[in-house]
Amino acid sequence: MQRTRGIVRYPGGMLKRDYTTQYCSMAATLEIIGERWTILIVRDVFLGIRRFDDLQRSLGVARNILQTRLERLVEHGILRKKAYQEHPVRYEYRLTSKGADLWPVLMSLLQWGDRYAIDGERPVIVEHRGCGGELDDRRRCVLCGADVSVTEALAVRTGARRAPSGATVPA
Ligand SMILES: [Zn+2]
C-alpha cells in the first residue's frame, strides 16, 4: 500500500472499504464478495475449477486481479490453499465450510438471473446428482422432493450462448 497525495492505493487493484458508514450485514458481505470478479471466482471453485491457470482461462480475467481476489478470499477464510505439487510447490484453491455456505447465495443469484437478467435459454441448469431433477427456489429437487446439499448438486451446461450482438430476431 502506498500513499500518493493523501489517496490510499492498494496493490493489484484491491479496493478500500466501500460502505464505511453502513453497519449492515448485507453491506459487510458485499465488502467481502462484492468486488468485480470475486463471486465468479467463487462460482468457478464451486464448479470444480481450482487451479490458478484454469481459473484464469475460465474467467479471462487479468492475472494480477485474479491473484488479488484469490488472496482476499483466502484472507477472509472463504477459500484455502492446498498444495497439489511439491517441486515447485503449486497450490489449488478449495472452499472452506464458510465458503461452501455461500452456495444458497450463488443459487439465488443464478435463479434470479434466469428469471430477470438473461434473455433466452438458460446456460446452466442445476440438478440433483444421480436423480436428474431440477432444484427449485428452496434448493429442493422437483422430482424426488429431497433437500439437495451442495455436494449432491450438479451444474449442467445447456450449451446455450449469448446471441451475437447486433443479431436481429427473425420477423
Ligand atoms: Zn431428486
Short description:
This protein is an alpha+beta fold and 171 residues long. Helices cover 34% and strands 17% of the residues. The protein has 2 domains: 2-99, Winged helix-like DNA-binding domain superfamily/Winged helix DNA-binding domain (Arc Repressor Mutant, subunit A), CATH 1.10.10; 102-157, no CATH class.
Structural write-up:
This protein is an alpha+beta fold. It has two domains: 2-99, Orthogonal Bundle (Arc Repressor Mutant, subunit A); 102-157, no CATH class. Helices cover 34% and strands 17% of the residues. The chain has six helices and six strands, in the order ββααααββααββ. It has helices at residues 25-33, 38-46, 52-59, 63-75, 97-100, 103-117; strands at residues 2-4, 7-9, 79-85, 90-95, 124-128, 153-157. It has a two-stranded antiparallel ribbon. β3 and β4 (90-95) form a beta hairpin. The protein is globular, with a radius of gyration of 19 Å. It starts with a strand and ends in a 14-residue tail after the last strand. The relative contact order is 0.10. The model is unreliable at 6-14 (pLDDT under 50). It binds zinc ion. Zinc ion binds at residues 128, 131, 133, 141, 143-144, 146.
